[in-house]
Specification:
The protein is an alpha+beta fold and 169 residues long. The protein has four helices and eight strands, in the order αβααββββββαβ. It folds into two domains: 102 residues, PH-domain like; 46 residues. It is 39% helix and 32% strand. Strands 1-2-3-4 form a four-stranded antiparallel beta sheet. It has a four-stranded mixed beta sheet with strand order 7-6-5-8, with helices on one face. Helix 2 packs antiparallel against helix 3.
Length: 169
């Protein structure tokens, strides 16, 4: 008969890397695109009437269009590497990449903050910083899995309002 300890040690030995990626920030993309369109709508009639204000609006339109494109290509990726006992954080904007590593020994806890039934936030609490995890549709399960994988405690924070969807006992 197999005991729980034997199952736990064999499954821990075959742990694979876990990668969490963020999707494009559509709120920022749409915001900058709308501002670009607004300034284009100001610039073209100003050029038609021969006013110099069209140049300023055209510069703003190009600036906001560039910001929308940059926001589309900006990505955040977190990889949990259990064999190396570290967390790899990658941020990139197109071909430009920034990468850093955080050891499991620097992690103190995983904090799950829940506001209502749809809003949640998972943070990895380290020595010098709190690292936000990319958004997920299953925050409770992901936070528990991260805490077990890293070997730290899980802190659950939720509001006590009656609309939060949690029952009081």
């Amino acid at each position: 008969m197999i005991t729980r300890e034997a199952v736990a040690t064999t499954s821990a030995a075959s742990a694979r890397d876990l990668t969490l990626s963020s999707p494009p920030n559509w709120t920022a993309i749409c915001f900058f695109a709308v501002l670009s369109g607004l300034h284009c709508a100001i610039a073209f009639p100003a050029f038609y009437h021969g006013r110099w204000e069209g140049y300023l609006s055209l510069i703003f339109a190009l600036f906001f269009a560039t910001a929308a494109i940059i926001a589309y290509f900006a990505r955040y990726q977190m990889t949990i590497l259990p064999q190396r006992r570290c967390i790899q954080i990658r941020q990139r904007i197109g071909p430009v990449k920034f990468r850093r590593f955080i050891a499991f020994d620097d992690v103190h806890a995983i904090r799950l903050t829940m506001h209502g039934s749809r809003e949640s936030r998972i943070e990895i609490l380290c020595d010098n910083e709190d690292i936000d995890c990319p958004p997920t549709t299953i925050p409770r399960q992901e936070a528990l899995f991260l805490a077990i994988l890293i070997g730290v405690r899980l802190i659950k924070v939720c509001d006590d309002s009656p609309s939060s969807g949690h029952r009081k006992l």
